[in-house]
User: Which sequence fits this backbone?
């Protein structure tokens, strides 16, 4: 029925070709955002990732800046009072952009990038790059500032076989020296205490320690000594420098501390101090750790240091002035985390101790005496749904009365950052786990309590006429009450100035809006933390941290029960699978509140190969999830009697497929009555020729409104709408640009029939593709022409439908017609997705994430294999755009205007209650949520719709009719009198 | 086994040959077209097996032999014998319980005969036994190859494909297969059509190049045309923003 819709605008199209194109594009695409719409329907959140290095700006007392370097190769600055991003530098992905170290001195932030590839200096105020210097090859080991006469002028960079000294002002290299005996000795640390010398410490594991002193002036070796140290394996992990250049090492085997003066003239020896003699005991199987502090690079480090003896046991020790004896200052047990902080001349130690189940206390202690400073307790609330504290960054400052005040940044295991101010106020929290979203789903919000009650009435069984009437009346009364309350609220708020009215979204007030535009975004992050985010405001409504998630785990999020089945709560299942072993576990939760549900989970002793969600529902309206293990046995979840019975009845019509890309093997299975499986088809793509890179079916919630396309001559071309169709993309093993190819196979997932098999010659991945309705769009790199190209495949049954009532893969003997066209795309892309709407009436757009961070909304109309090369009457009638080999990119198609999404990884689309509107979430480093209207808002009145005009016209017409009627009556009467 | 001699005398072999010219000449897979082709023209045969069991456990038996010939023109033919009475009965029984009729061919390469011709493993496909019975054994079997001539998949469909539950009365209808056999190589996906487009643009350009005199018309009357166009654009812009939904259901 819907096919006639597309004929509507065609009558106006009889214009010359070129004009036609221009006119057409204007007609379709005047879609950009108006200035006053910015931020109205969309929001963006920017993240940086897991913090590796954090420094407070101690340059000036009042500075609010905080600098972070993260595992996502990002260097960023935050406002420490609000947690807002001030600036952010996103470097290359992968090892090339890794930040090895971040050092801060005054206004300069020094950074070594890419395993010692580059040395960079940033201006911390503006975030601009001061200079950048290329370093010699070799992997990075250590770096430190080098001061001379109380001013820091140089930075020393130690690499595997080379040490170099650079000027801080311009990055020029002062000198570079090869380290002697670089093959045998592992150089691991560099130290400068403000003298004329730079010390390099190297170790030959379990043999001896090498100390080389370089002259600051010209890089000449002044001294070179080696010290017997058969117990030492790594300087980096077991040694620190304390006091006046005293190397302090800890040996877990002999449970002893070793000291060695670095600067000593004569050949020194390690001095052993047994921990037992200090009355200290190391927890079993714990590697003791030393923590020291060098507040200023021009001066030697503090003689106080921490020794960690167990997971929650720290001791503050002091090296006595004689340099050989150690005095314990204070024992901290239990204490999770410790950190030194310096302000002016004072150095303090911050210690985090557990307080109770839900909170930790942080206290300050004077570093030189170990005395507790009064009124310095700060409470850190432990989130039960978050991770444990992982690291402490303390910013100490002098108050007006010369006492020490401090702020503290706590990093937890779930990558969250919490900033706490005295006296124990959480200023802000940043959920940095969201920088790495793996998968997401959007779930409808529940109805309000009153609405739900009304709904619930229909769910319950009838218990007599009178109680039913009473119940109806009571629910009507509650509805009336709610409405009155709403009116009162409106009236009350109307008197307040607009800025004060805040629509705070909390988990209690969540309810579905009129057009279902507000949804719950359930996001799964790589760190194993789950988030529930309100799609309208972007505020995090719940979070849940899954501990014991392996770093290489694969996640699959499944919505088993939607919100539609009141009073049953919605239910989501997260399948967590270890990539190496294949063993999987399930986490079942309520997507609205994030609470774990207490359903009995199936035992999964064997690796899981495939999971599939069946349309079969159990008596509680939860869809059944089937898990296939490596022996092709099937586990059902939930596995109630009812479900098993249904499965037995349906078993002969449940088919599934498995793909082993390492063997190029695709095989299909059918379920048997006893929940075992039988292999029924097999397709093998030899791995010598090509390897399977991606497989994609269609989205199960996709609706296709029109079965066919009306052609110019008014006949209908029916679409081949096979819900079981799989698009399999392969890449050739031969990487030679002339012989490389990309293969596109369309395979029926039930019968294993190869519906179409095409080869794109001289092409290479990465291939991005979207499979929807009756089409597949893919993008690849053309190795011959060196450009990105888009190709579109459309499948049609022809002008007659084989079986118009139902589609069955088992009964569709004729192969579809396949049309294909290819275009040049002037940009590489990072991800691609198609818009999705409620009923599928709205025309489709492709949402393309570009490396620039823009998201392009490309009308599918431009990717239509029926675009004619020569314009005819028929094609014009059909609204086909004449073929042009190059696909345009118009800036007004960027749905995120200037809100670029760094490193877009995925785009998620969800239908809303309005047919015209599709909700879009783009995630990567940032998260961006917006709405798109592929066919514009045909079902919504515009914001500036002139209600006054239309109603005045209506009234005027109404009165005009009344008056003229009266006049006519009078006239008739007069005529009758005559 | 009693009825075997009679059926042997009748048409014991029903070869259905269908040749699909896969255009191998243009898709040079890095192998020189000359070598190995002249020697390999004889072709080779591989077993073609089927399985249909009431308990749905695969027990493959010989159905016939596939005669494959690689090279410039890939061709395939099938020689197969009739179904025995026992087989016919089993097939009918399988059809009643909605079992599957499966076929399989070994994985082979059509071009690369020097090296090991047969790789381990089979390619399998299935069709519902009832549809095979109801179509009186008229099946369409398609073999798929990849770019370098390996067999990658096989498919079987029957025409008509539906199971309507009609009883097949005549035993003769279930004796001999009426097989249509094709072999399909991958098609080459199109490249962007730049040459044609440029040609078309050139033609258009030429067309536009000619009416130089028309320009004088604009030159003469531009002072009337420009205000008119401006006026139209202004009103048009308003109009357009008003009629936002005009493209609504264009699909």
Assistant:
């Amino acid at each position: 029925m819907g096919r006639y819709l597309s004929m509507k605008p065609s009558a106006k199209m009889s214009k010359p070709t070129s004009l036609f194109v221009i006119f057409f594009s204007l007609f379709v695409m005047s879609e950009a955002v108006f200035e006053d719409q910015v931020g109205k329907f969309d929001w963006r959140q920017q993240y940086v990732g897991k913090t590796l290095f954090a420094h407070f700006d101690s340059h000036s007392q009042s500075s609010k800046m905080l600098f972070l370097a993260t595992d996502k190769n990002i260097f960023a600055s935050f406002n420490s009072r609000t947690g807002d991003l001030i600036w952010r530098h996103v470097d290359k992905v992968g090892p090339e952009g890794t930040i090895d170290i971040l050092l801060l001195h005054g206004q300069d932030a020094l950074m070594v990038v890419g395993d010692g590839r580059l040395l960079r200096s940033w201006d911390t105020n503006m975030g601009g790059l001061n200079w950048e210097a290329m370093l010699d090859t070799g992997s990075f080991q250590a770096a430190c500032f080098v001061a001379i006469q109380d001013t820091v002028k140089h930075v020393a960079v130690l690499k595997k076989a080379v040490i170099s000294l650079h000027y801080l002002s311009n990055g020029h290299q002062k000198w570079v020296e090869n380290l002697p005996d670089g093959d045998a000795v592992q150089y691991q640390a560099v130290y400068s205490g403000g003298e004329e010398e730079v010390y390099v410490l190297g170790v030959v594991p379990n043999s001896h320690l090498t100390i080389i002193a370089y002259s600051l002036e010209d890089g000449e070796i002044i001294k070179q000594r080696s010290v017997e140290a058969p117990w030492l394996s790594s300087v980096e992990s077991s040694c620190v420098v304390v006091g006046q250049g005293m190397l302090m090492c800890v040996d877990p085997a002999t449970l002893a501390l070793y000291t060695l003066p670095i600067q000593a003239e004569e050949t020194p020896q390690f001095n052993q101090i047994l921990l037992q003699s200090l009355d200290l005991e190391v927890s079993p199987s714990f590697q003791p750790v030393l923590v020291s502090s060098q507040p200023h690079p021009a001066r030697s480090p503090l003689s106080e240091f921490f020794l960690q003896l167990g997971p929650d046991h720290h001791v503050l020790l002091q090296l006595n002035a004689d340099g050989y004896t150690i005095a314990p200052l204070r024992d901290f047990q239990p204490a999770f985390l410790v950190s030194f902080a310096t302000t002016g001349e004072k150095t303090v130690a911050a210690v985090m101790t557990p307080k109770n189940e839900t909170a930790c206390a942080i206290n300050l202690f004077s570093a030189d005496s170990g005395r507790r400073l009064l009124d310095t307790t700060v409470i850190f609330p432990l989130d039960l749904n978050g991770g444990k504290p992982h690291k402490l960054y303390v910013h100490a400052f002098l108050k007006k009365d010369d006492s020490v005040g401090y702020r503290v940044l706590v990093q937890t295991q779930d990558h969250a950052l919490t900033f706490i101010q005295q006296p124990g106020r959480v200023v802000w929290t940043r959920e940095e786990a969201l920088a790495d979203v793996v998968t997401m789903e959007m779930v409808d919000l529940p109805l309000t309590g009153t609405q739900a009650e009304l709904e619930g009435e229909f769910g319950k069984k009838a218990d007599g006429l009178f109680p039913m009437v009473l119940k109806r009346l009571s629910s009507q009364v509650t509805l009336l009450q709610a409405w009155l309350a709403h009116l009162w609220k409106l009236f009350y708020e109307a008197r307040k100035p607009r800025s004060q009215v805040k629509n705070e979204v909390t988990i209690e007030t969540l309810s579905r809006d009129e057009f279902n535009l507000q949804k719950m975004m359930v996001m799964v992050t790589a760190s194993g933390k789950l988030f529930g985010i309100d799609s309208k405001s972007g505020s995090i409504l719940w979070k849940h941290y899954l501990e014991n998630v392996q770093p290489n785990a694969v996640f699959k999020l499944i919505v088993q029960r939607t919100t539609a089945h009141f009073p049953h709560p919605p239910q989501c299942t997260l399948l967590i699978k270890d990539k190496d072993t294949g063993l999987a576990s399930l986490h079942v939760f309520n997507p609205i509140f994030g609470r774990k549900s207490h359903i009995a989970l199936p035992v999964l002793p064997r690796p899981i190969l495939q999971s599939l969600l069946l349309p079969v529902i159990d008596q509680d309206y939860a869809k059944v999830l089937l898990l296939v293990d490596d022996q092709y046995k099937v586990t059902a979840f939930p596995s109630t009697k009812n479900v098993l019975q249904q499965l037995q009845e349906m078993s002969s019509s449940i088919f599934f497929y498995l793909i082993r890309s390492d063997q190029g093997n695709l095989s299909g299975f059918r379920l048997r009555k006893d929940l075992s499986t039988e292999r029924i088809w097999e397709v093998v793509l030899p791995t010598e020729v090509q390897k399977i890179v991606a497989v994609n079916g269609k989205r199960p919630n996709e609706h296709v409104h029109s079965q066919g396309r009306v052609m110019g001559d008014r006949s209908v071309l029916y679409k081949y709408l096979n819900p079981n169709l799989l698009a399999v993309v392969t890449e050739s093993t031969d990487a030679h640009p002339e012989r490389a190819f990309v293969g596109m196979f369309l395979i029926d997932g039930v019968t294993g029939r190869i519906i179409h098999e095409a080869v794109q010659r001289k092409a290479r991945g990465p291939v991005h593709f979207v499979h929807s309705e009756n089409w597949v769009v893919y993008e690849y790199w053309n190795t011959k022409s060196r450009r990105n190209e888009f190709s579109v495949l459309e499948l049609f049954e022809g002008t007659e439908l084989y079986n118009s009532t139902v589609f069955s893969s088992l009964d569709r003997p004729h192969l579809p017609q396949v049309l294909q066209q290819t275009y040049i795309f002037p940009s590489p892309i990072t991800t691609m997705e198609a818009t999705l709407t409620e009923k599928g009436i709205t025309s489709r757009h492709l949402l393309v994430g570009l490396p620039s961070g823009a998201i392009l909304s490309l009308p599918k109309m431009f990717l239509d294999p029926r675009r004619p090369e020569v314009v005819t009457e028929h094609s014009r009638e059909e609204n086909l755009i004449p073929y042009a080999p190059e696909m345009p990119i118009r800036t007004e198609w960027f749905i995120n205007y200037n809100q670029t999404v760094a490193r877009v990884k995925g785009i998620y689309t969800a239908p809303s209650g309005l047919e015209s509107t599709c909700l879009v979430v783009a995630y990567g480093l940032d998260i961006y949520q917006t709405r798109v209207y592929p066919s514009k808002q045909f079902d919504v009145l515009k914001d500036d719709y002139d209600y006054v005009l239309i109603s005045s016209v209506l009234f005027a017409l109404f009165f005009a009719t009344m008056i003229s009627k009266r006049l006519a009556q009078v006239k008739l009467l007069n005529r009758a009198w005559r | 086994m009693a009825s075997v001699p009679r059926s042997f005398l009748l048409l014991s072999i029903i070869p259905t040959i269908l040749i699909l010219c896969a255009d191998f000449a243009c898709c040079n897979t890095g192998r020189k077209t000359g070598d190995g082709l002249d020697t390999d023209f004889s072709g080779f045969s591989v077993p073609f097996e089927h399985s249909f069991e009431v308990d749905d456990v695969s027990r493959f038996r010989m159905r016939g032999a596939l005669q494959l010939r690689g090279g410039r023109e890939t061709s395939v033919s099938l020689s197969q014998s009739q179904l025995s009475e026992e087989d016919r009965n089993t097939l009918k029984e399988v059809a009643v319980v909605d079992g599957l009729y499966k076929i399989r061919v070994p994985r082979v390469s059509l071009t690369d005969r020097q090296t090991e011709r047969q790789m381990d493993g089979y390619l399998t496909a299935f069709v519902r036994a009832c549809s095979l019975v109801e179509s009186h054994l008229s099946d369409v079997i398609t073999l798929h190859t990849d770019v370098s001539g390996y067999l990658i998949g096989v498919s079987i469909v029957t025409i008509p494909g539906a199971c309507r539950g009609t009883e097949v009365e005549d035993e003769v209808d279930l004796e001999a297969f009426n097989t249509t056999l094709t072999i399909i190589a991958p098609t080459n996906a199109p490249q962007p059509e730049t040459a044609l487009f440029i040609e078309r643009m050139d033609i258009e350009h030429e067309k536009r190049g000619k009416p130089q005199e028309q320009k004088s018309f604009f030159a003469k009357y531009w002072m009337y045309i420009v205000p008119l166009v401006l006026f139209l654009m202004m009103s048009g812009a308003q109009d357009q923003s008003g009629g936002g939904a005009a493209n609504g259901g264009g699909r």
About this structure: The longest strand of chain B covers residues 118-128. Chain B touches chain A through 62 residues (CB under 8 Å).
